[in-house]
Input
Amino acid sequence: MTQKSFIRTKSRYTAYYRMGEGNRKKLFLIHGNASSSAFFFPVITSLAERFDVIAPDLNGFGDTEATPVHAPTALADWAADVAALADALNVPRFALLGWSLGGGVAWRFGIDHSRRLTHLLLLSPMSPCGFGGTRGLEGEMYDADGWGSPGGFANPEFIRRLKEKDRGDSPMSPRSVLERSLFAAGWPVGREWQDLYVDELLKIRLGEDYYPGDYRAIAEFPFVLPGKRGISNSLAPQYADMKAFADIPHKPPVLWIRGDQDKLVSDRSMSDLAVLGSLGLVPGYPGEDVFPSQPMVGQTRALLEKYRINGGTYREAVMEGCAHSAHLEDPERFVHEVEAFLAG
Output
């Protein structure tokens, strides 16, 4: 595996992988929450046979210089960091793939820097309406405070294990949480790769300024409101509304890849407070008529349909038997989908 490189951009000292530098077509890979650029191994080596592939660590993750994450502007800030890295590497235009939270960065990059994109690829992206706190395909918010969004809500036992750098196999260890949340049928890679991913996850910055962030306590369900600091709060609907993507002036073709078994980004997400409440895992749930589950997949499709009506093009590729990490669960098909799309 190649070593990470480091470069000073106008934003920060940035860690990144780069492979296939001699290839003409440029492809940036943006990782998701609780991960880093290393989560694109080993598929990055296959992609580098045809593309100049650049995969950075976002602020708060991996080995990139960290500064406090300001939730209201975090997605735009991460997108600006990607643009700054591209400038520093003298890459004016490129294809951009965003995975999960990185999909939110990709939505934002399209809004802010559409003319720099040759193609946009969304891999199990977060909803363009944010994570939690909205209802219906149009992503209507319940209120301006983001009621219903988990915000800084996180399992305290998982946070404790992250602080302790737990590399074991207990049920709430980072290794086990990754296995349950990312994959449909358990780890699809061997222990060596698992160890790499766990080590990279454990580099995440913790606390109110990073992961998970701060929160505001309330007396009734769901007992927390999003704060203004940290990574999880950046996904709250009042900060993560990306519906303007449908109207961007330059419309690169879009490929949306998702697994049909995704438990994180779905219309019944196991991280949605409405779903957890309906299962009795969060007390005080007011019921489906008051707080239905967020149709995350439906919201993405609805926005991309508006994008198409406005003159853009997109294709949805559903990967059977995959969950949130199709690039690791079915790498051959994933690479094939990417190569075919970028060849067009």
Q: What stands out?
A: The longest helix spans residues 74-88. The first strand starts at residue 5 and ends at 8. The CA atoms of residues 75 and 105 lie 5 Å apart. The chain has one domain: 5-343.
